[in-house]
Amino acid sequence: MTEFTFDLLATDSGSAARRGRMTTRRGLIETPIFMPVGTQGTVKAMLPEALKEIGAQIILGNTYHLFLRPGHELIRNLGGLHRFMNWDRPILTDSGGFQVFSLGALRKIDEEGVRFQSHLDGSSHVLSPESSIAVQEALGADIIMAFDECIPYPASREYVAESTARSGRWARRCKLARSQGDGAALFGIVQGGMHPDLRAGSVNELLEIGFEGYAIGGLSVGEEAALMYEVMDNTLPLLPRDRPRYVMGVGTPENLIEGVSRGVDMFDCVMPTRNARNGVLFTSFGKVSIKQARYLADPLPVDPDCSCYVCGNYSRAYLRHLYQSNEILSSVLNTHHNLHYYLGLMQGVRDALDGGRFGEFKKDFYRKRADNPSGT
């Protein structure tokens, strides 16, 4: 029996934004929430203690990567992913579908599942709805995802319809494969490409099956932001009010604010961590490319309005020096700052919803960016 509940605490009078709380077997999660991505059992360049310090409530692990290395059975035998990586708060695992389908010529899809070659050594493997659920349960995740195909963009309507129908059949198999005594919440994933009618059909099928939460997949795959928001506008109102809504793989700070405005409760994305390793920092006034020469002797913190450890102790000049010198500390400090910004942004959203001022918060978010169009 699942140990998962979702309570809706407040709504915004001027938008579809909502404030909620998820209860999992490893603690509460206040929503809306951003989940740092810990693909291979670690959020790159971050200690678990540092993640807690900056307010991470839940992190995401990747089924595909952990299945291949070091192996889900090894992790199970060592006490599960939480103990393996020393993280005692909730973990969500994706199904592995996105990574498998991104392998291109190295994989073959059929009704049974996906046959693929490992990107590590070329060895052959199969992931099916049943094995994806088995791997996620072996890892011990608190929220697990149904196995689906992340449809590429663009794609023909015929392909999207065929893939969406297959993902629906896979979702039923995932529900049947789930261990009743495991305690993890199982989320279904809405597909349908950019077609409103196919999205609606996917929602109806998932509602018939029944899940603890619902995700929108197949976004942030190359489409313009306006089209992403259009899909959200068409799909989110179809999802049940009393279940969490998760948009997968999204995105920029602007994407998060717009998603919250449309009723999204959960987000994840590699953007803050990946950009940090490439010298791009997120701030209240926009992005800063710390590698630029104009920061060579700049004594200011990255964001004077930021309360993180990095902005309280280091200058732009020092961060630029670390990046230009290819020092490991560059990734550590940049990642700390970026995740602090993302998690702080969502804390600000929650506080604004609690206080009935989300509309004001959103206007202020965009005003600061408009006042600094060059991102300096």
Automatic annotation (TrEMBL):
One Gene Ontology BP term is: tRNA queuosine(34) biosynthetic process
Record-annotated residues binding Zn(2+)?
C306, C308, C311, H337
Q: Which residues form a coiled coil?
A: none
Tell me which residues this entry annotates as catalytic: D94, D268
Q: How is the cofactor bound?
A: Binds 1 zinc ion per subunit.
NCBIfam families attached to this UniProt entry: Q_tRNA_tgt, tgt_general
Q: How does it assemble?
A: Homodimer. Within each dimer, one monomer is responsible for RNA recognition and catalysis, while the other monomer binds to the replacement base PreQ1.
Can you name this protein?
Queuine tRNA-ribosyltransferase
From which organism does this entry originate?
A: Desulfuromonas soudanensis
Taxonomic classification: Bacteria, Pseudomonadati, Thermodesulfobacteriota, Desulfuromonadia, Desulfuromonadales
Q: What gene name does this entry carry?
A: tgt-2
